[in-house]
Amino acid sequence: MWHMNPNARVHLALGHTDMRRSINGLSMMVDEALEREVFSGDLFVFCNRSKTIIKILYWGKTGFCLWHNRLERDKFRWPKTEKEVQEITREELSWLLDGLDISQAHQHLEYSVVG
After folding, report:
1. Residue 66 domain flag
2. Which of 3, 5, 28, 42 has the most C-beta neighbours closer than 10 Å?
3. Domain range holding 66?
4. Global pTM?
5. What DSSP assignment string belongs to the chain?
6. In this structure, is residue 3 part of a structural domain?
7. 57-90 as b/e: b if 16+ CB within 10 A
8. 111 is a domain residue
9. How confident is the prediction along the chain (115 residues), in pLDDT tens digits per residue?
10. CA angle 35, 40, 44 (to 5 degrees)
11. How many CB atoms lie within 10 A of CB 13?
12. What is the pLDDT of residue 1?
């Protein structure tokens, strides 16, 4: 079941990650390479070189949780940037998992009535 902190932030580990890594390897990567607090309850999202697998690691109430998603025919639209880590919203994570390109997503605009 997907129980997580409602205030959890989402961090993308940009570039590609060796998907042979499991909980121990990914948690060490979060702590050492990404310099983030792995026990924070935040979501840490990783993608493989061919952009067909995403893993999401987070600390639950009683231990680590690892969510794995593999596409058979398509590819994830993984962001391209020079940064190592990018923080996104949960809504953007949902878009990413649905196959959308979050770099082309538009901000929600607030409109007001003139008059």
Report:
1. yes
2. 42
3. 10-104
4. 0.85
5. -----TT--EEEE-S---TT--HHHHHHHHHHTS---GGG--EEEEE-TTS-EEEEEEE-SSSEEEEEEE-SS--------S-SEEEE-HHHHHHHHTT--GGGPPPPPP-----
6. no
7. bbbeeeeebeeeeeeeeeebbbbeeeeebbebee
8. no
9. 456 677 899 999 999 999 999 999 999 999 998 899 999 999 999 999 999 999 999 998 889 999 999 999 999 999 887 788 999 999 999 999 998 888 776 556 666 777 6
10. 60
11. 21
12. 46
Structure tokens at 33: 């390479």
Residue 113's identity, in one-letter code, is V
**What's the number of domains the chain is made of?**
1
Residues 6+ apart with CB under 8 A from 75: 50, 51, 52
